[in-house]
Write a structure and sequence with these properties.
CATH class of the largest domain: Alpha Beta
CATH topology of the largest domain: Aminopeptidase
Shape: elongated
Structural class: alpha+beta
Radius of gyration: 23 Å
Strand order of the largest sheet: 1-2-6-3-7-19
Length: about 400
Amino acid sequence: MVTPERSEDGGPSRTALQDLISDLVSIESENPPGNERACARYVEAWFDDRDVRTEVVREPYPDRPQIVAQIGDGRPRVVLNGHMDVVPAGDREQWDSPPYDPQVRDGNLYGRGAADMKTGLAIAMVTAARLKADIDAGDLPGSIVVQAAIGEEAAEPGTKTLLDRGYDGDYGIVLEPTGLRTATSVKGCAYYEFEVGGESAHAGQPGDGENALVRVLPLLERLRDYGRTVSQRTDDLVGPEHATLTMLDAGTKENVVPGRATIALDRRFGPEQAVEDVDDEIDDLVSAVEADTASDVTWRRTRTYDSASAPSDGRLAEVFRERSSDVADVPPDEYGLTIATDMRNFVDDADMEAITWGPGAIAQAHSDNEHVVLDEAVTGATVLEQSLRELLRT
């Protein structure tokens, strides 16, 4: 039997929403390696039970299906985006309860993906189902597309592929956790890997080799200084840029002079900067190190999340700021996220007006004992429905 999505007072049913979040969280969909299949089957079946037409999109990877649900054909068309993948749960011993056995304690629902972002996906599903009758009857002239995407946690082109396939619209809402604040800007992120070569030798005769750990020190110092420099650049909404050293790998054994050292750098940048500009800065830095030290340094960008910015005074942002302020009492001021989201695909690739908005705290994302406040999830569903009703009539 399908649980009603409507409570006695006409608002979203807390029980139905909690059950849906729990079901989604209980499905392990870690990425890596990309285990979204079971979650996709669940989302498809859930919509089928409610007579919502769905499509299974087997791109960009045939074995990792994406689900698109569509209600209505009119304009404006609003796209609700949620990714199905979650980061690995990590050390289970650090969790107070099993990460894929969702539990409710003190009004919070615990489990991997509870905040990032299966609650966002759940309120998209529930809200779309609740609005179906009004859209089908012509009382709401617009239409809704729900994207259940793959690959967000690994910067894979799940959302981009759906938009490229034509599952786009007039407005895009990426339902990542923002505490129900309306983000019109998101930071970009790029990961870089640097390798400095040396020559291995027995540590008893270190002069026979070239110690890569020693040779990497000038590069480490330059990258540290680079981080200090870029942190002086700031954006009004997303804050300062960052260049953070995150990993150093060298050596094979205690008594062996390391012949190779590898460094990882996490680079965060604002919406006014393109990743190609960051590449140029990195290339100049490496060239300077090589000129000063005669070391051979190679580098590559291993992963990219582009930045994005949408009009803060656009219709979409204004509606969500007003409804979130009225219903949830969150600040109505302009807001940006210090993390990257698939909003970039809506803005940069599909040229759509888009925001990042959703229930949950970003501090809970990727954390042990990840959780979402259920009251906020219910409030988020209310805000989303009110906002969509307003947008679909304009």
